[in-house]
Specification:
This protein is of the alpha/beta class and 323 residues long. 30% of the residues lie in helices and 17% in strands. The strands form two sheets. Strands 1-8-2-3-7-4-6-5-9-10 form a ten-stranded mixed sheet, with helices on both faces. α1 packs across α6. The longest helix has 17 residues. About 2% of the residues have low confidence. The structure holds threonylcarbamoyladenylate and magnesium ion. Threonylcarbamoyladenylate binds next to β5 and β6.
Length: 323
């Protein structure tokens, strides 16, 4: 695996990535949410390599990344809600699931055979430059082994995928740190499939009242990636604790002190000032760091569930789910 950092000449980095993509290879690259593992979406052999590198179930479809709304509209059908959302929040941390256009070049494997397609226009300047340069859709799941915590730094990608991918572009820490908000814009009206930095309130402002995702995520999930256990560290997680038990590590939020806090084996604070944006950006790195200490369990302090808190709690609940 070749590693390029931002100190490399920008254009040669973009050229190298495009060359690898056109040859059917895999390039991990930064986005504003998490690092993605990209392949040419029109090349089924390249897409198959993503599933192999991640150890990802083939029934789980991928997001196609495009440089612009115009490029995205060539691939899928945008109803009025989809169009309004795209105009409001693209480029940015939002993925729209729409019906595919009949001549859509994204291969069947990338879509897991569905007749819908997940589309995203990321805002990260490096991702933008790469996508403009390639001028083809790039499918990119988070650049981690399937089921692991998503990578927010290049070193997370290399520890999961070194030797399995062709190129890793190091663009520093991801600014948001949580995967994009996924919104289905299909016949039945807009529905959030995965909460993220584009919050429920932000979506409703633009698209009106949302439909609710059927709760039972185990039965034929609409977003196949919405399996209950996901984003999982090795250690057990206890959420919204009022006390830390002996032998546990503590993942704190804000300043209230918890019973037993002094005895925590290890500790990290998502945001000492209680800022949800800072907490989202730190979540996956701190989970990785606490997990790496080898503790059997991580106690997580209460976190408010409004705004970005909904996405943070969603990821924590998946990380805590029995597996
Ligand atoms: O922020 C992000 O979205 C990152 C960066 C790299 O862009 N990508 C990401 O991809 O999180 P991934 O593969 O880890 O998550 C994609 C999710 C999965 O839960 C998948 O099931 C869902 O999108 N998905 C993809 N296509 C879908 C479709 N047609 N219908 C419903 N859900 C879909
Ligand atoms: Mg993922």
């Amino acid at each position: 695996m070749q590693l390029l950092t931002l100190s490399a000449p920008y254009t040669s980095m973009i050229d190298r990535a495009a060359e690898i993509w056109l040859a059917g290879g895999l390039v991990a690259f930064p986005t504003e949410t998490v690092y993605g593992l990209g392949a040419d979406a029109t090349n089924p052999l390249a897409v198959a390599k993503i599933f192999a590198a991640k150890g990802r179930p083939h029934f789980n479809p991928l997001i196609a990344h495009l440089p612009s709304l115009a490029a995205a509209m060539a691939l899928g059908r945008f109803n009025p809600a989809a169009l309004a959302l795209a105009k409001a929040y693209w480029p940015g941390p939002m993925t729209l699931v729409v019906p595919i256009n009949p001549d859509c070049p994204v291969c069947d494997l990338a879509r897991a055979g569905l007749d819908t397609l997940a589309l995203r226009v990321p805002s990260h300047p490096l991702a933008q430059a790469l996508l403009h340069r390639l001028a083809r859709p790039v499918v990119a799941p988070s650049a981690n082994r399937s089921g692991h915590v998503s990578p927010t730094r290049a070193e997370h990608v290399s520890s999961d995928l070194a030797g399995r991918i062709d190129l890793l572009i190091d663009g520093g820490a991801a600014s948001l740190g949580l995967e994009s908000t996924i919104i289905a814009c299909l016949a039945e009206g807009p529905m959030i499939l995965r909460p993220g930095a584009i919050t429920r309130a932000m979506v409703e402002t633009v698209a009106g009242t949302l439909h609710n995702l059927p709760i039972n995520a185990d039965k034929a999930p609409i977003a196949p990636g919405q399996l209950a256990s996901h984003y999982a560290p090795r250690a057990r997680l206890r959420l919204s604790v009022s006390a830390v038990r002996p032998g546990e590590a503590l993942l704190a939020f804000g300043s209230p002190s918890l019973r037993g806090e002094d005895q925590a084996e290890f500790r990290a604070n998502l945001s000492p000032s209680g800022d949800l944006i800072e907490a989202a950006a730190n979540l996956y790195r701190m989970l990785r760091e606490l997990d790496a200490t080898g503790v059997a369990a991580i106690a997580v302090a209460p976190i408010p569930g409004d705004g970005l808190g909904e996405a943070i709690l969603d990821r924590l609940q998946r990380a805590a789910a029995p597996r």
